[in-house]
C-alpha cells in the first residue's frame, strides 16, 4: 500500500515537472529578439547614409541581421584580416613574431608612431603588430600587410577559410576598381563579426596564433564609441575604423550572462565631420548601449557623467 502511494506521488510529481512552464521561455526569447530588432531599427531610422548591423549572442545563438550581407568599406577594421595573414606567415615559419625589423623612410605613410621613426630605427615585429591593432597605426599596418605577403596572400587566406566578401584592396594587384569604391578593404557586418568569432574560437591559423591575435585586439586605445557604453570592468575585444563617409566597429563582449559579438558599419554618410557628435559615431554608441542593456537587463551601469571630456 505504501509503495503504491509512493509510486502515485512520483507519477504526480512527474506530471507537474512535465507541465512546468518551460515552453513560454522560448516564446519570450523570440519576443525579445523581435524587440531587439525593433530597437535597432529605431536607432537607425532617419540615418543619413547606409547602415549594416549583425548581432550574435554566442550563448543563446540569438541573431539579428540588418543589411548584414551588404558590402561596406572596412576602413581600419581591415587590420584584423591583415593580422591573420601575418600570423599565417609566422605559423609557417616564414617570419618570427619577435624578429627585429629595420624601419626605412620608404615605408612612411603618415606621421603615426611607426611613421615617426628615424630611418634605420629597429623595432620588433610584435611591437608593430601591437601598434597596428591598438592605436591603428597606418604606416605599421601597411608594413605588416607587406610582410604578410601583400593583399593577395591575405585574400587567399580569407578565401581558404570561408570568408568570401572580406578582402584587402589597397596595394593589391587586380583590385584597383574595388579600392576606388571601398578603399583599403571591404567586408560585410556578418563576415567581420564571424572573423572575430573565428579568432576567439581558436580557429584562425592555429589555437596559439588565435590566442595572441585576440590579446592584441583586446588592447584598444580608441574606446570612445562602442566601448564607452560597456562597463570598463567587462572584457571587450574590438577593432574600429573611420573614413570621411564611413564608421565601423566590431566588438566581442564577454558579458556576465554570456558572450555576444556585434558589428556596425556605415557608408555614404552625409555627416563627414570628425567630432564626437558625428552621426556615425553616435550610432556606434547607441547600438552598443542598446545591446548591453538588452543582454544585461538587470545592469544599472551607465557611462560616468563627464566622460565625454576625455573622449578622443
What are the main properties of this structure?
single chain; 312 residues; alpha+beta; Beta-lactamase; 2 domains; five-stranded antiparallel sheet; three-stranded antiparallel sheet; 10 helices; 10 strands; 42% helix; disordered N terminus
Please describe the topology of this protein.
Elements: H1 2-18, H2 23-44, E1 50-57, E2 63-66, E3 72-73, H3 79-91, E4 100-102, E5 122-124, H4 125-134, H5 138-147, H6 150-160, E6 167-168, H7 176-182, E7 185-187, H8 189-200, H9 207-217, E8 236-243, E9 246-255, E10 258-267, H10 279-295
Antiparallel strand pairs: 1-2, 1-10, 3-7, 4-5, 6-7, 8-9, 9-10
Helix pairs in contact: 2-10, 3-5, 3-6, 3-9, 4-5, 8-9
Whole-number mean pLDDT = 91
CATH C-level category of the largest domain: Alpha Beta
Whole-number radius of gyration?
Answer: 23 Å
Question: What is the fourth-level CATH superfamily of the largest domain?
Answer: DD-peptidase/beta-lactamase superfamily
Quickly give the CATH architecture of the largest domain: 3-Layer(aba) Sandwich
Numbering strands along the chain, what is their spatial order in the largest sheet? 2-1-10-9-8
Number of structural units classed as domains: 2
Distance between the termini: 78 Å
Please state the structural category.
alpha+beta
Strand content: 15-25%
Instruction: Determine the fraction of residues in helical runs and give it as a percent range.
Output: 40-55%
Spans of 5+ residues with little confidence (pLDDT < 50)?
1-31
CATH topology description of the largest domain: Beta-lactamase
Number of DSSP E strands: 10
Shape type: globular
- From N to C, what is the helix and strand string? HHEEEHEEHHHEHEHHEEEH
Largest sheet features: 5 strands, antiparallel
